[in-house]
Amino acid sequence: MRTRVKICGITREEDALTAVRHGADAIGLVFVEASPRHVSIAQAQAAIRSLPPFIAVVGLFVDAEPSFIEQVLKEVRLDMLQFHGDESPEECQRYARPYMKAIRVRPDTNLLQYALDYPRASALLLDAHVEGVAGGTGQRFDWSLIPADLPMPIVLAGGLNADNVAEAIKQVRPYAVDVSGGVESQKGIKDAGKIAAFMRGVTDAAL
Ligand SMILES: O=C(O)c1ccccc1NCC(=O)[C@H](O)[C@H](O)COP(=O)(O)O
């Protein structure tokens, strides 16, 4: 089975459709004001309005107020939540949606403990730790820090691109990969050629 792909930081309808046309399984919408990939509720609605069925829409938040998340959930058809800040397990599981907990991995990060602490997460999304930046850094981390026996699906993120995604999949064997900067022409604007090349890399890893 091919590794699933989530393309994150989608801000425009045409980029959502390009991602899907090339085989992406999920798209991510960044509801974080400080991000260059931030979408308003209206932009999010527009970006996903013509998506075909069976494509998952993931809403990304960083330590957001619950009232804001509830408001987004009322107005945008999100299938899953992605918590990219310091949200506790209780905070992550209070919404009527499955969620992924993003972990910014450092050499001393105990990923097995995170899996135990967030037992109701659908997956752990593993991203690079860059001081002072919540995510979308374009940096990769040392994949050998990921234990082989994590009792939870892994979504591998952080600095992935067409040149390294096949190697990443072969080494880590994640459930899914997540990419943002590696398929962009500028922050928040996706590039069809880079998306196509990334998807070829994912397919090549399965051969
Ligand atoms: O994308 C952002 O600007 C962002 C801001 C705040 C928190 C998280 C953010 N992005 C997270 C992601 O898009 C994914 O983890 C992504 O796959 C990793 O980004 P990249 O290294 O650019 O592929």
TrEMBL record:
Keywords per UniProt: Amino-acid biosynthesis, Aromatic amino acid biosynthesis, Isomerase, Tryptophan biosynthesis
EC number(s) from the headed UniProt entry: 5.3.1.24
CDD domains given in the database record: PRAI
GO-annotated biological processes: L-tryptophan biosynthetic process
Enzyme class: isomerase
Record-linked InterPro entries: Aldolase_TIM, PRAI_dom, RibuloseP-bd_barrel, TrpF_fam
Pathway given in the UniProt record: Amino-acid biosynthesis; L-tryptophan biosynthesis; L-tryptophan from chorismate: step 3/5
UniProt KW Isomerase keyword: yes
Catalytic activity line of the entry: N-(5-phospho-beta-D-ribosyl)anthranilate = 1-(2-carboxyphenylamino)-1-deoxy-D-ribulose 5-phosphate
Isomerase as UniProt keyword: yes
Residue span, N-(5'phosphoribosyl) anthranilate isomerase (PRAI) domain: 5-199
Pfam families assigned: PRAI (PF00697)
SUPFAM superfamilies (alphabetical): Ribulose-phoshate binding barrel
Top-level division of the source organism's lineage: Bacteria
Gene Ontology molecular function: phosphoribosylanthranilate isomerase activity
Similarity comment text for this entry: Belongs to the TrpF family.
Name of the protein: N-(5'-phosphoribosyl)anthranilate isomerase
